């Protein structure tokens, strides 16, 4: 009797997301964005911008610049972490003839060290450095902690006969009789040797752990890194606990609107926690997943039908005050969806990918003669007649 075939697992691969050489200062990016809209045939006085940013104060400069160059305060399309609220498509579309959506997750960047994830909070006493984006960091921290713990409690060693072994805490092993209910789960089938019946059987058991003989493929992989095997109890696996060797079986930690953020990132947590810059990797993943989800919602929905629409997504890099210069933000474009009222040309039938999008943006002028002088506009408001406002009866 033929054995039933197991359905193949389909793995989602993320597209490349470059940062080097593609970061544009917001004072340059926003006028170029406005001019890109004009080059697509948008009506300069009828464009309603929208932004999907975090609510952090360091996202204020991009919003102010959008107000300045588009001549109106941008509609708020965003939730924490740069997640877009799709139920706001309708109100946004209703507020302008032509529509622009700018979506960006954000992460801090330190030019001194070239590291990501932190920023200075100027409204806190002293020099207070904290996470940026704090919400993304909050979501990934429990997984990071579990990964760091596992790296210290899984051991590689070699016995006196030259056999290569791994000793693993029971809490990381998905036993048939006692599977892991909550936490990091090792994919032992990718690490250890199987017996003739394709079972994973330990060669020894200790009070809180199991020891397994390593498979040849995994040994070759470790040897390729230049690792030197130790005898006795060996040493912890450290960074050799690669992303494809484990997964997380977790109940979601978040209980508010940010559960959408955790749900999006959950399947990619091994890749995030093993990254050199976890918060940057998480932000890149959110941007990619959101772009796919929102393009689908636009194409399947009716809110933007018959309208000019530019939906552009990317990464906001928050840079704290540096050598006397004020805090600023850079934008790294990633992808765009372009929809034109009279039908988009063939080149926009598919999303505009990163390299082409960067070319489109940088091909626009940095000059915007239609920008609003915010100081003058506020002055005019102060000079306006004082109205006699009364309650209705």
* Number of contiguous helices: 10
What Rg do the Cα atoms give? 26 Å
SS content category: alpha+beta
Q: Mean of residue pLDDT?
A: 90
Low-confidence stretches: none
Percentage of residues in DSSP E strands: 15-25%
Largest pleated sheet: 7 strands, mixed
Helical percentage: 25-40%
Instruction: Give the SSE order as H and E letters.
Output: EHEHEHEEEEHEEEEEHEEHHHEEHH
Number of E-type strands: 16
Q: Could you give the distance between the termini?
A: 85 Å
Tell me, briefly, the overall form.
elongated
Keywords for this entry:
single chain, 393 residues, alpha+beta, seven-stranded mixed β-sheet, five-stranded antiparallel β-sheet, 10 helices, 21% strand, elongated
Can you walk me through this structure?
The chain is an alpha+beta fold and 393 residues long. The chain has a domain at 142-249. 29% of the residues lie in helices and 21% in strands. It has ten helices and 16 strands. The protein has helices spanning 26-39, 60-70, 89-94, 134-153, 216-223, 259-265, 269-273, 278-300, 354-362, 374-383; strands spanning 24-25, 47-52, 75-76, 98-110, 115-116, 118-120, 129-131, 154-158, 164-169, 183-186, 204-205, 209-213, 235-236, 246-249, 309-319, 328-339. The strands form four sheets. Strands 1, 2, 3, 4, 5, 15 and 16 form a seven-stranded mixed beta sheet that branches. A five-stranded antiparallel beta sheet has the order 11-12-9-8-13. The protein has a two-stranded antiparallel sheet with strand order 6-7. A hairpin with a 4-residue loop joins strand 4 and strand 5 (115-116). The longest helix is centred in the last third of the chain and has 23 residues, at 278-300. The radius of gyration is 26 Å and the shape is elongated. The mean pLDDT is 90.
